[in-house]
Each structure stands twice: as C-alpha cells, then as structure tokens.
Amino acid sequence: AKALNFAERWKAAAREKAQSQPFIIDFLRVFGVEDPERSGDFEFKVPLGDRHGYIDYLWKGKIAVEMKTRGEDLNKAYDQLRGYALHLPANDMPDLLLVCDFENMVLYRRTTGEKSSFKTKSLSRQIRRFAEIAGYETVRLRENQIEVNVKAAEKMAQLHDALKEHGYGGHDLEVYLVRLLFCLFADDTGIFPRGSFANYLENSRPDGRDLTQRLAQWFETLDQPAEARAKRDLLAPELRQLNYVNGNLFAGRLPGADFNAAMRELLLDCCRFDWSGISPAVFGAMFQGVMDRERRRELGAHYTSEENILKLINPLFMDGLWAEFERVKVNPGKLDEFHHKIAGLRFLDPACGCGNFLIIAYRELRLLELEILKMKVGGGQRKLDISTLLRVGVEQFSGIEIEDFPCQIAQTGMWLTDHQMNLLVSGHFGMNYVRLPLLKSANIVHANALALDWEGVAPKGGLSYILGNPPFSGARIMGAPQKSDMRRVFGEQRGAGNLDYVTAWYKKAADFMDGAKTRAAFVSTNSISQGEQPALLWEPLFARRGIKIDFARRTFKWSNEARGKAAVHCVVIGFSQASNGGGKTIFAGDGKGRKAKNINPYLVDAPTVFIKGRSRPLCDVPEIGIGNKPIDGGHYLFTEEEKRDFIGREPGAKKWFRPWIGSDEFINRYRRYCLWLGDCPPVELRRLPEVLKRVEAVRRYRLASKSEGTRKLADTPTRFHVENMPGKTYVLMPRVSSELRNYIPIGFIRPNILTSDSAHIIPNATLYHFGVLTSGVHMAWVRVVCGRLKNDYRYSKDIVYNNFPWPETGREQKDGISGAAKEVLDAREMFPGASLADLYDPLT
C-alpha cells in the first residue's frame, strides 16, 4: 500500500536538484525507514584521489542512490555510482545500487551482478528486491541458486555412475533416479515428515546389502493408498507415516539396484544436501546432463536461464495478465472472474525438453494467483484453509518431447514446482498445505512433435498459448530424420530445403491455430529473420493462414550463467491469427520495448515486404560473383614458408604461384599463395615432378568424394571447380565480417591476385561503386536483410547485393561519392602497418 501511494505521489516528478532528497526520503519510508537522514547521508562525500565525488544518498552497507532528471541516461548514472561505491571502505560498500530518474528505476545487486529495471509506478510489484532495507532476510539469490543446482546435479552424477558401473542402466536407471530425486526433495520440503527418508536410509545395513529392498518397499508404499496399506499388518512405522503420492511416479516395480557400502554412502551424502533450494526449471536440464558423460563436461552449460525464459513468457501473456490484474483488483466481482480466467488458460510446449518453459510459466501464474488471493482474503488472516481457494493447477500445462527421460523430468519438475508454490502460499496464510495424493499432473507426451497431431495433446478450441524453444539445426547440417520431419511438415513447398529445423514448429503452430484464438511464441536462431528465410517461411504463413507477428525481441545472446556456457544468437517471435488488441511491440537487444504499427518478417516496424533471391542486380551496376573454388583438399594452397620450401625443391614452379586471398587474409592482412596450373602447358608441367605429385593428390582427393560432380572434376585436376579471374582490378567483398564493425571492409584487388570463394568479387567496379558499398546507406540495408553467422554479417549475392536499391545519382553526386571513396582509401594508406581488422575496429 505504501508503494502504491508513493508511486501516485511522485508520478509527475522530474527535477533532480529540487526533488531528489524528498523523493529518496519518501521512498525509504515505504520500507519502514522512518528517519532516512539518521540511517544514511545525503550528498555523501567520496574521496577520488585528487578530487571528490558525491553520492546522492548512502546508507552504509545497505544501499546507495543516484538520482537524475527524468529522461537522462541511467547507464551513465550507474557507471558513476559504481565508481564512487568502489572507493568506499569495504564495510561501507552497499550491496544495492539504485539509479532513478523519477519515472524509471534500475537496481543493481553488486555481489551477484543481477540487474532489475522497472517503472517507479510498478514499485509495488518489486518490493521484495529491497527486502534488506526493510529488515527482512532475502530469498536465495539466483547466482547462489545456480551453484546449488550444479552441486545437486554433481551429486546425482556420482550416484548415476555408481549404479551404472554395477550394471544398472537404460530406462530403469532413468526412472530410478527420478524417483530418488523426488524423495530427496520431498524429505527437505515437508512432503515427507522432514528427515524421514534420510533416517530410513541411515537405518539400513552399513554394507548396503539391504538397501535395494528397503528402497523398493519405500517406493511401493508411496504408490499405495491408505486402504491398500491397511491390509499390510507388518508395514514398518516409518513407512506407515508416508502419504500416498499417486501420479504414477512410483507405479510399477523396478529391477533392484545392487547397492554396496560405497554406493550407500553416496546416497546418504545426497541426503545430507539441502534439496529445498533447487530450481526445478534449472535443475531439470542439468539432471538430464547427468545421463550423458559427453554432455556433462561442464554441468549446467546446457540449460536455459530463467531470465531468458521470461523474455518470451512476459510479453506473450504475463505482462497482459498483470496489467489486467491491476485494473480489476479492487473490484471483487471482476477479480473473481479474472481468477476463473487464469485457471482456464491452457498451455502447450511442443518441444518441452525437461519442461523449463512450462515450469516457469506455471510458477509465474501461481505468483499472480497468490496476489489475487491476497486481495480476496487479505494478508492478515492465519490458519486459513487455502486448498479451497487455489484454482491454478499443473493440469493446465501440456508438453511434447521426443526423448523419454526429459519427459519424466518435466513431469516431476512440475510437481516439485507445485509444491514450492504451495509452500509459498502456506507461508503467507499460516498453514502447511501439501497437495497429496497427486491427483492431477501436467500432460507430458513422449512423441515426435512434428509427426504428431497436437490436438490429441491439447484440444484446439481450448488452447490459449503455444510456447517454447524448439531445437536449432541449420538447413545444411540436418540429419536424415530431421530432413524427413521437414518434408512431413512442409510437403513440396518451394524452398523448404533452405529452412532451418526450427521453422517446422512455426508451420505446425500456424496450422494448428487456424481459426482459433491461440497465440504462440518461440525462441529461434536469428537466421529465420534474415537472409532468404523470412520470405520462405513467413510469406506462406501470412498469405494462407493470416498470421501476424504480435511482438518480437531482436537478436540477443541466448546463454546462461553456468561455467562453459554456450551462447547462440536468437530472436523471440510472438505470432497469432487473431487480432491483437494490445498492439505490437519490438524489444531491442537491450530489452527495451517500443510500440510498432507493424512487425515485418525482418522484425522491423515497417510494411511487410519479402526480399527474395535475385539472380541479377536490381539496378544498372556491375554483377557480383563468387571467388575461386579449387576443391583441391588444400594441395594447391601454401603459406609463405611452405611456398619458399616448395620452390627450393622445385625452382621451376615459381612462375606458377599466385597470391591467394580470402576474407580472412584480406581483413587480417596475411599472405597465402596458390599454385595455379590452369595456364601451365602440359609439356612444362611434365618437367615439374613435385608439382605433378600435387596434381595427382588433387585427382585422388576428387575421386574419393561422395559427390558425382566432384568425381567428374578429377578428369581436369589442374582446373578449379569455380574460376573467376578478372583481367583488371576488381573489388573484393568479404562474405563474412564481424558485427562489431560499422562497415564491412572492402577493397580493390590487383588482377594478379586470386580471390577464394570465401569472398565475393565485383569486376568493373569503380570508386563510385566502392563508395556506395562502404556507405552507411548500404550498411543499413545489410544489417536488416543479410544472413548472419553467429551474429556476424554474412553477405550474399542474391539477397543483399542484387536486391540493393542503388541511389539515382547525377554526375556531380557520383563525383562527390567517388571523391569520398578516394579519401577512405587514402586514410587506409596512412597506416601501412595496420590491417583492416585494426582500422575498422571501433575501439582502435
């Protein structure tokens, strides 16, 4: 209530000098700090060597605040505040650093690097982030949670290996580990009487010989309702106290795992670990990594961070639900209708893996439900029976996963999350609520989503949202099963062979939502919004299904906080057939969203256009082509040293060497050479035995190819597969160049130099053409339509160059552009020792 009132009072504030101190005082009083001037200091003086800085407000060891006038750069404000904080004595250094321009707040947690950005008007939803200054102990921080999950996965890895070494493997081992995980978690979170599982194991024989049977009895008991247990007179007391779990988690007997003393000790060591702190979303993927030693090289490197999952979930549905909650929360009737609404939502992840997206979506929906319950019944009531009030359940969520073990992890992860959320609600309303037996569960189906009718998993009419992170695999690296899936989904659609694997989920989702109000959002490699793929994927979906893009997050690095993390450059795209009443939003890489009139397939606020491959330039300009492609197995290519050594053995070969340059050699300025024998007369070639050895090696290399076309090239081993050797100076355009450069470095190349197929060449190009191609205008075009390798520019002939709309210029303009181009080349000549990588690096 204080936070809401504070936001209302200060909604029009803007001036740093006049309003900062009363704003900070009022802000701290939200958290019960009645006399902020006694707790901390305004304009706290910080020695910075030969000068001083001033922190707007410092509460030593707690929080530092830097205020700015509305609209000023908060990133600069943070850099300033952090610099000041680092000059404070260690005991005075605060953990929380807050920068604010009255409208926006950005909170940094110094010890973990966690950053939170939000509007001042939404402070009421962010107050837990300031728990320390209100005198409360904070929940475990996410950075620490990563460590908790890694340690937990390492424990399971040790147990997995021990069981496997004793001959217990396959599906049985997977199920066994999932059951043990549930028991370990249940023992620390109140599903079982606390510590009962650990005590039960402690009471087994030290040599572990009876542990197999004891675990089988434990599992069997959890699978039996009370009436079945009543018939077992000899059931041990420690088993009688267990609640019936159901949910098929413990259904069916497994073969016994033969424990010994060492394996027993490993399991007891797992019991000594506190499992209450694991995140089911994060831990699930780590747990899956346990099963494969190759994938276990760096535990935790393969999961999706919660922060990245929220980049999809929030704009797809949570932001809208929170906004609706704010509108109805003070109206009891409408609030109850809203509660019914969220309990009726249905979700499908058709590539769910270990269930990360479903778990986080369920958690966020339960957090919203908790706020609804607080408004309905108030926060002061205690000993309230909340079981009758909870409406959101795991049965609202469905998933499809092609691998069996992740399905089991996802199912169990949803139950664990359900229990964690029940504990949270219990803590607020003063009762212990455990949802046992497990009568409902998420519907996780083990199947190939691209071969399955989704309506058998989630009925079309009732499905609200499709979401997830389908597998990434480029069109050129797909295996036979994936290619078969693509044919199954796309049929004979023209160009489908050039689409990435992830696009099949877009097509299936678009087909599924035809005529329905379902909305969807997927994480994808950014390739589907670049190069040739936008036209191939989106044009049929727009035309035949009436699909529209509702929101998009442009390219960002999809990674996690774990060791050995692998980053992929991704986009998030939300789409639907139904009209989107909430408007369209494009999120930049920094996470800032802005409203858009239309989002086209290149994720730009602009009319929907499709840039298709074109064989010739759109305008009257020189044609562009690929460089030389030898297909020689490297036998004709030499470094400077290799060339010198070869000529020492075969002096007559010297005249047949030509400088060889590709994108990397051109940009980083190093030399390679090519033995070009296409012009060498046969009579001379026969006098060069070392050269003939190279020719024979190329012939054999081509004959060994699986490609019929390459084998045919063995008939002419001195020729290249592609030969492009202009007779006069030409322009070289690298096919791949770093995204960090403001311009792709291009240049003029002498005709005696051979360019490889890692670059494009433009014969007959003039200074005018060079000037336009190295201009900001052309780079704007490149950034939108070219493909990417990671996030580097991947320049193409048919999409980028041939479609570029060249400016209509008169003689005077052409001369001006040519003169400016000459100045660029002259500037390069001023640094004869520098490479283009040096000259085009924005930092150097």
Gist of the model:
With 844 residues, this protein is α/β, with parallel strands linked by helices.
The total count of helices amounts to 29
Contiguous low-pLDDT stretches (5 residues minimum) are 138-143, 296-302, 561-565
Mean pLDDT, as a whole number? 86
Structural class computed from helices and strand pairing: alpha/beta
Per DSSP E runs of 2 or more residues, the count of β-strands stands at 26
The main sheet orders its strands as 9-8-7-10-11-13-12-14-15
The percent of residues in helical segments reads 25-40%
How far apart are the first and last residues' alpha carbons, in Å? 52 Å
Q: Any overview of this molecule?
A:
This protein is an alpha/beta fold and 844 residues long. The protein has a 9-stranded mixed beta sheet with strand order 9-8-7-10-11-13-12-14-15, sandwiched between helices. The protein has a 6-stranded mixed beta sheet with strand order 1-2-3-4-5-6, sandwiched between helices. Strand 7 (347-349), helix 15 (356-377) and strand 8 form a beta-alpha-beta unit.
Write the layout of secondary structure elements.
Layout: H1 2-9, H2 16-30, H3 36-39, E1 41-48, E2 51-59, E3 63-67, H4 74-86, E4 96-100, E5 104-109, E6 114-119, H5 142-165, H6 170-189, H7 196-202, H8 211-222, H9 226-229, H10 237-240, H11 261-272, H12 280-290, H13 306-328, H14 332-343, E7 347-349, H15 356-377, E8 397-401, H16 404-429, E9 443-446, E10 465-468, H17 480-490, H18 503-512, E11 519-525, H19 533-545, E12 548-558, E13 568-576, E14 584-587, E15 593-596, E16 625-626, E17 637-639, H20 640-649, E18 657-661, H21 663-668, E19 672-675, H22 682-685, H23 689-703, H24 708-713, E20 730-734, E21 736-737, E22 747-749, E23 754-755, E24 759-763, H25 767-773, H26 776-785, E25 787-789, E26 792-794, H27 797-801, H28 811-829, H29 836-839
